[in-house]
Every structure is written in structure tokens, then in C-alpha cells.
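Thread amino acids onto this structure.
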């Protein structure tokens, strides 16, 4: 989803105050649901979620943690609800050779490039299938507010630039439940981007939990092909401006941008219009890796992507936190 602009205000606006009663009700319902006891399965569950609606970098964080666990010799499987994919009752193991975003969602395709990924609405059933398939640790991409599975360790990913927004609950603000209600469910924070002061403020809001600073680093090879090039950039993610800022930071000349809703399914007409604009401006088309997997194969071949990887400032601290939880 695209976050409304007033959510980001440090002090609630008049519109936010008008919506605050609805937000209080929504937050209370979510908080009550989060307090339910989850079912334990035969492998530890590491949850990578966030406090707010919209993107904070959960999937890059899950991929980074997955790679860390694999390097430690663990047999990792990702669990995802497969948002944007076809509805299903039974869990499905993602196969990148035969599945596309319309079948399983965009994020599972990215996760499955690193480790097996199971999609389905029933987290417990997906977990058991993954364990039967050989997994000895499960990484839950999103699901902090879903109580179905008992979590061994839950990371909350926080955008260092936007933090907790105006501190109110949806629809008055970005929080899915009051921060005080969500905090007991979280064992550690991952703060992506932002300056040192912003990171300290975020960490101070949840004392007693380790806070790991991280950044999203563009792929060097892909970046080299974009330096100095005129680019028409488009993105259907929660905060497209972050992608455009990354393009400018690596030296691309962004001549036009086009925003779409998060998880947007691009039509042929939309891609044709983007292509026409790029030709008219004598520029190249560029989008995110997550958006590219939602394009038809022919359209995808004509678009450059800029993959990003989440890098921890202190990876050894993160690794020890994982090892301690799974020990």
C-alpha cells in the first residue's frame, strides 16, 4: 500500500485526529489478536516483521538473515502468505522455473532465489510442510501481527527516515497496533537507513532490545550500467521515492518518475506508455527487482533493474543474536 502523506507528520494533523477513534479501534483489535498464544512447530521460527503498514525493508532483511543462517549451516525455509498471488488453501513450494508473481506473489519469487519458500494463508500448515521438506529453521517474512505460529525470535524492521510516523494507528497513522502493545512481541530491531540521531530515537522508543543499523546497498554491476544514463524510473512499492533516490545516488540521471501502488500488476497499456516515454526522452527504463518479477517476460527484458542488498553495520552482533535465540 502507499502510505498517505499525513502519516509521516511528526505531530498528528487535523485529519489524523479526525480518524484517531477509528485508529484506536483498529489498533485495539490487532493488539488483542497479537496476544493469542501461537502454535509451536518442530523448528525454531524467526519472524521478520514491522510495526507499521507499508514497506520498511522486511524482504531484504529476511534475505539477509536467511543468507546468514545458511552460512551457519542451517537449512532455512521462508514462509510467506504470497500477497498478490493466487488464492489457495494448501501451501505451495515456490518454483521460480514455473511460477510467476500472479501465482505466488512477487516477494516469494525473490525469497525462493535464496532458500525454499512456502506460500499459503495457513502459517502452521506451511511451517509443517517446510519441516517435512527438510527445513530446520523457518524465516517468517511478515507476520509480526499474526499469532498463528509461536515465534522463537521476532525482528521488527523500522525505516530510519520515517520511524513510527505520527504514532497513531491505521487509518489515522501507520501503526498496525499501539507501539506499547507490539513491543513485547519483538526481540530485536533492524533500523534501515536514517541518520544516527534518528536511529537513537527509534532505539530509545523500545529500550532493552538490541537495535541493529542497516542500509540498502545497490548491486555494483547493475549500478555501473546506470551511471550517467538518462532514466525513466517507475516503481510499485510502498515508498517509490527511496528507489529514485538510490538511482540518483549512484549517478543515474532520472528524467521522469512514475509511481504505482504497492504490488501493482502492470498492464500492457501501462508498459507501452512507459516505453513510449523512454523512447521520446531517449532514456532507458528502470525499476526495482520486486517490480520486475511482476512484468511479462517480454517487457521485463526491456527494463533495467537495480537490485539492492541489506547490509548490517555490525553483522557479527546480528549473527550472535540469531545463534543465541536458536541455541
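Threaded sequence (327 positions):
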Amino acid at each position: 500500500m502507499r502510505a498517505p502523506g499525513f502519516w509521516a507528520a511528526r505531530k498528528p494533523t487535523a485529519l489524523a485526529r479526525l480518524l484517531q477513534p477509528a485508529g484506536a479501534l483498529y489498533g485495539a483489535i490487532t493488539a488483542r489478536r497479537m496476544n493469542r498464544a501461537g502454535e509451536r512447530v518442530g523448528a525454531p521460527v524467526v519472524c521478520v516483521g514491522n510495526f507499521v503498514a507499508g514497506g520498511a525493508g522486511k524482504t531484504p532483511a529476511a534475505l539477509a538473515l536467511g543468507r546468514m543462517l545458511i552460512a551457519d549451516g542451517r537449512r532455512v525455509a521462508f514462509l510467506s502468505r504470497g500477497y498478490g498471488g493466487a488464492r489457495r488453501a494448501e501451501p505451495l513450494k515456490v518454483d521460480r522455473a514455473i511460477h510467476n508473481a500472479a501465482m505466488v506473489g512477487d516477494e516469494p519469487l525473490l525469497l525462493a532465489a535464496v532458500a525454499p519458500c512456502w506460500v499459503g494463508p495457513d502459517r502452521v500448515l506451511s511451517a509443517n510442510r517446510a519441516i517435512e521438506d527438510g527445513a530446520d529453521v523457518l524465516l517468517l517474512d511478515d507476520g509480526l501481527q499474526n499469532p498463528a505460529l509461536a515465534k522463537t525470535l521476532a525482528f521488527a524492521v523500522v525505516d530510519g527516515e520515517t520511524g513510527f510516523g505520527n504514532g497513531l494507528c491505521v487509518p489515522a497513522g501507520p501503526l498496525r497496533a499501539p507501539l506499547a502493545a507490539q513491543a513485547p512481541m519483538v526481540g530485536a530491531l533492524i533500523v534501515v537507513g536514517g541518520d544516527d540521531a534518528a536511529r537513537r530515537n527509534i532505539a530509545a522508543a523500545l529500550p532493552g532490545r538490541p537495535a541493529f543499523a542497516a542500509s540498502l546497498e545497490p548491486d555494483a554491476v547493475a549500478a555501473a550500467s546506470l551511471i550517467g544514463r538518462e532514466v525513466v524510473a517507475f516503481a510499485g512499492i510502498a515508498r517509490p521515492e527511496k528507489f529514485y533516490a538510490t538511482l540518483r545516488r549512484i549517478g543515474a540521471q532520472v528524467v521522469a518518475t512514475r509511481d504505482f501502488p504497492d504490488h501493482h500488476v502492470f498492464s500492457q497499456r501501462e508498459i507501452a506508455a512507459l516505453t513510449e516515454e523512454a523512447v521520446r526522452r531517449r532514456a532507458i527504463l528502470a525499476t526495482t527487482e520486486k517490480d520486475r518479477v511482476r512484468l511479462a517476460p517480454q517487457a521485463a527484458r526491456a527494463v533495467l533493474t537495480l537490485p539492492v542488498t541489506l547490509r548490517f553495520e555490525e553483522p557479527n552482533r546480528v549473527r550472535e543474536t540469531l545463534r543465541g535465540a536458536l541455541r
